[in-house]
Amino acid sequence: MSNKLHCIKGIVGIGVLVLPTVIYAKSPDSIRIGLESVYKDAYTIQIKSESPLAVGYFDEERWIQEGYLESEEINVTLANQTYYSYDEVYSDLEEAYAVLDAYDSEAVVAYVEPGEYKIYTTDDFEAQTKVHTNNNRIQIADSYGEILLISENNNSPLGFRGSYNTYDFPATGVGNSRIYRGVIEVVKGQYKGLTAVNQVDMEDYLYGVVPCEMSASWHGEALKAQAVAARSMATFQYNRFLSRGYNLVDTTTSQVYRGITAEDSRSNAAVDATSGEIATYNGKVAETVYSASSGGYTADSQYVWGNAVPYLKAKPDPYESAANHVPWTRTITTKELEKCVANQGQNIGTVKGVRIEGYTTSGRVKALTILGTNGEYTVKNEATRTFFSGSNEGSLKSRMYKFTPYDEGNQVTPPVIQKPSQPESSNKVNILTSDGAVTLDLEGLWIESDATFSKVEGEVYIQDQDSVTSSIELGIGDAADNTDRDLDFKEDAITSEDATTVYGDITLYGMGYGHGVGMSQYGAKGMAEAGFDYEDIIMYYYDGVIIE
Questions:
Q1: 174 DSSP β-pair partners
Q2: Could you say which of 241, 379, 440, 504 has the lowest number of CB atoms within 10 Å?
């Protein structure tokens, strides 16, 4: 077998090894992304380049590049052959390849662990030792099927790095259409086969995330807010998938990541402008969750996922215009509902109808009951959206839905509040009225409605130079009579609207897109267009965080 390695290079440092520790207030320098949208539990993983692929591995803070394979395209598969090993141990790949031609035609270099290589063969005539079965053993072959290398190590896997004429930095192709910065590794799959992994610098990772999560054509300040939110999320979730051999995945389970293929100069500039910045709360990185559209009012994390988080509270989202959250409609048959109920392991007989029990203060369905001939089944909070995953079109876009169409009379349409260009002082507030904006002293401010003086129906939102303040927080209005404001303002408080029921097939009319917690991306867009910068946006949607 001919030597499969040439152009031996020295050690090239390109980043840090991802350590199995929790990072609280600093973004890691590099990150390992499981490319599950491309190859998860796959039989074969294809890796490409426009020049011979470099091969190496990570050792602590260094990328150890040991040379180049004699191929621009490789196929990585699990090895199912029986191998026999010669006893000699070589300290690096170059040394092992240098002696390869002295062995039989079936001989191949095997990477055992960093700093240890052996020669394997399928011919047991001369080899001394039968190699123990290893379910993690992989083989690297060229496009013609000739085996170039064997790897025994799933904990310190081999990495491959290529180049493309289009880019002035290392770039490696994976599959038919994706190209990534950094290094591509291959690990044993979660259930079977193999999964591709991209180890990449954090900022380079964000280049491939931001334009996938927010249109690169949007305002630059919105893109910067997205970059900070995405960096903070990646840091917060850093160790979520360690059991699979990487930190995050490239899907919506973490954040959508498409590598160089998705990059845009505008979103790259937003990443660069906020380099290293994350949102923190009480000295720890914040979980800056976000969704496409809040429908005009964000949701409280406690009544979506069950965890009360001080910086993820429900609040009005006045920066989403009606055009950004156009109502959606879904029709679901009783047969689909029966399938959804069955998916929950329930049996309530033939489905007759559905009852919405009530709404949260943010306008989201709090509880939903399915009515059957043999009983009822009730789901609550986020399950009122995901319960429909068994229907033909899957889960609902959001929990903000009704049985009647949204129109100008009943949709959530909080006013769009423009940022004051030059606030006079911190004790002034700007209030939008039907006659335009007026500026008043915050101290001693009272509000009169048609019904009463100093009391209002619901809340009034007033903006000073730093934030939006509700009438409740100012001690104005009905809710201010309660000594514990949170008891009245909690999102688990069901509105007074009567429960509504429909029978037979149902049609739902909804607003918003996503869970609604944290930053609304369309809201961020509206804020940016109104003159807010990215720090304003982050600190509005995540109460009490700071950017550092």
A1: 47, 178
A2: 504
